[in-house]
Amino acid sequence: MAALFPDGRALGIEAAVIAGLIVLVSFLVYHFTVHKIVNHRPLGGTNVDVSSATSDQSEAAFAVDPSDAKRIFGASNDTGLEVVRLYESGDGGTSWRRKGGPAVPGGSCAHGAPSVAFGTHGREYLAFLAAQYCGDSLTPQLVVTTRARQAARWEPLVRVAEPTWKYGFDDAPRIAVDERSGRVYVAWTRSLSKGEATIVVSASTDEGKTWSAATPVSASLEHPHHATLAVAENGDLYVAGIDAKLGVWVARSTDGGKTFAAPEAAAALRANPAGGCALAAQDPLPKELTGCAGPDPTVTVGKDRVYVVYGDVGANQTPDVYAVTLDRDLKVVARTQVNPVEKKKTQQFLPAAGLDPTTGVLWTCWYDTTFDENAHRAWFTCSASHDGRTWSAPLRASAEPTSPNILYGTLGGAGLYAAIAARQGVAHVFWADGRVIANSSDIFTAAIPEKTAFSPEN
What we know:
By secondary structure, this protein is mainly beta. It is built from 4 helices and 30 strands. The protein has helices at 8-34, 288-291, 404-413, 450-453, and strands spanning 48-49, 57-65, 68-78, 85-89, 97-100, 110-118, 124-130, 141-147, 158-159, 170-177, 184-193, 196-204, 215-216, 225-231, 237-243, 247-253, 264-267, 279-280, 283-284, 298-301, 305-313, 319-327, 332-337, 348-355, 362-368, 379-385, 395-396, 419-423, 426-433, 442-449.
């Protein structure tokens, strides 16, 4: 016959379960109500929702007009459109006009990964990946278009280079303009054969109507990814990226991108994804921006220095942000950690960088979990430097945090990178932000003055 009253052992187990539930509920109440996580860093500037759309916007690309620092042009991916989404501001980023980008001929779709630049007299350039048919993720192709001014029509899309073989692809394009000559450059990863892909460069001297043959930066690179490029005042072209052998590398061309000197190692990578991040059965795939994230290098060029900002795992085995300073001949002058050294296992990831050509100030921004020990919240955070070696105290670009789960989800789905466009002492920073719609991202911006970053109160 069953006992009417439980024995002492059963009562003890029940009491322990109840006590555990009380502790759990108390923790949840404290964590989500009483214990409010606060980022104590100063806010760099007013936050503006640039995209303000219901679908996901990611992969921000923006530029400031050299002839009018109030005029900003940009683009992003948009999962709700069959084209890239475009943005225009004439008041320094306070307000924005939004529209869909140029249609892909034949009823096809944009594949994303936009990159933008301003040329002479306010001319806008837009590079992105187009699909041969909507949903084609295996053979995207690089296209470029341009228009003379904001109100002008976009020129027909031009494919920069024809495929080298039946299933050839283009991936991860970047575009830049030599402000002195008007020469336009694009660098990207290109499939050369079934088993080989590498970073190539092409140039245009007629405002994007025709392009030179796609020239590999170097045959010595092993699985190169993440091309980034910048043009010096004297017209020299610098291209940087990552590979499985050198880690972070930089190469220079002094003849308009026709030839490059041997790539120089800028920094070894503790966590180097290059060897296999965009491969399937040892064959290359166009998955660079979703599969090779981590280092995300950016190269910029000042008056007498070249800078490469990148991400890597630090001594405490968590991601940090680093900057390498090189001379114009690519001799390393210094390597520094941009974010403050922390004893706790904080995370600083997905960095972006930009240099103000009018002041020489280098800006770097990243997502940062410093004020949430559980890494459930990340604030887009920025710092500035006059020399690439010493950095201002970090300040918040984002007023509100975003869950890293949203960021990594967006990264794995549509790709994710931030942008910095700096001129006349103001850095316009752009990032994917998840505060508006649950599990979704908008492109946000903030205009951060240099005086704010270098303020003694910061």
